[in-house]
């Protein structure tokens, strides 16, 4: 028999479920040198340098205190001459940029600088804070694992009529489920709205209490429906709760769906931004050692949604000598976000029913509602006999929280400093076992610490997402026709 789940206690002050039309009450600007309204300012002890620009865009200023230089890196694309750098005259001491110094705004070129232009390389004095990589893999909760619900061809977002029920499928979002959640929920809402306008149903069932189920339930409530969520696992046990939480298009296929995806991305991004910190959402720069297809795809599909990429002559971190790239994105902290969603859903009268469905027939015999939204993530492989679904499992190392780290980082793995933990991940395999692998967690930490000169050097493992063979596989998948059979490259060659 299905069992009632107890309401989750409210962890946060009551506030309504995110409304995409509302703006964040306290948008927190990125710290450091910024270009609000197309103006960049870098303060020196004796006077200010003011870089006026009509540019739509952003720049990161990297100061070299010893040599009295600052380079202000503008967006790579809009400036015909490439990144612009400015060097103040001798003797002027520049303030070190604040944490996560990351420019905002939009640049379109035509920069004028009071201090003139000259190429300059930033020094390590301008480095952003170095993480503490202390990690005890044996500590409770230090190493977790989850399964990315990867669907070859595309995530599934469509309706069908089966056994007299209107079923909307919303699963298969790979490593981008948090990212796409609000946008997919809006599409689910559209499909159900059209259905109930004709059928006059007043109830809906949602299968799954991960991010897809919870956001879809919120949007169904907005239609005035009575909503029941059926799930095997409560939200805090789902893959969604374990996710790193970066807003990026990672490890998800979307063949032939660029039009739909543009809407999905736009709605998601705007809704998360409007939710703000109460929903565990922070604006963050991500420093990457390589051009990131996860962001380039967003820039291509939804131009203008996030600021353009910036090219940096050097990653601004201790021990780094390589060039890098900077993308502005969001960090969504799943534990905060999901708890907040569940709290809101409880207050709005959603009923949670704990039940593990054995198969599709079990769904139709257990669920009484005529409208069913299937958000079962990787569970859909078995439940809906979906052979396109593949498990792409990943481990995450959870280090102690370090509030001075206000940036995301990607090189030989990724690091997302959150309020609860500094999360380090980026490996994968193709098992559907959610047991954490402590040796893998240690390897993840070592790989990132190595970049900072704080761990012995090692070659990037073949089961890391940033290994070139994986990038190449993903590239080929993006070029292949939608129906090309796919097998994730899980066995290291
Ligand atoms: C290591 C890792 C890092 C990640 N990092 C990010 C990131 O930075 N950004 C990002 O956007 N995404 C990230 N993801 C991806 C993200 O976690 C997933 O895409 C997302 O959680 C999928 O959400 P979901 O609701 O579809 O599935 P889930 O969260 O898995 O929820 C599925 C729900 O369906 C229920 N269910 C399944 N089968 C049944 C059944 N037979 N009967 C009853 N209930 C059932 C489950 O109990 C659960 O409640 C990451 C994933 C992993 C593993």
From TrEMBL:
GO terms for biological process: D-amino acid catabolic process. Residues 204-450 form the FAD dependent oxidoreductase domain. The keyword Oxidoreductase applies. It catalyses: a D-alpha-amino acid + O2 + H2O = a 2-oxocarboxylate + H2O2 + NH4(+). Its EC number is 1.4.3.3. Pfam families: DAO. Transmembrane segments: none annotated. It is an enzyme of class 1 (oxidoreductase). One of its GO terms (cellular component) is cytoplasm. Its cofactor is FAD. Residues 1-61 are annotated as: Disordered. Keywords: FAD, Flavoprotein, Oxidoreductase. One of its GO terms (molecular function) is FAD binding. The keyword Protease does not apply. Residues 43-61 have a biased composition (Low complexity). Belongs to the DAMOX/DASOX family. This is D-amino-acid oxidase. The lineage of its organism: Bacteria, Bacillati, Actinomycetota, Actinomycetes, Streptosporangiales.
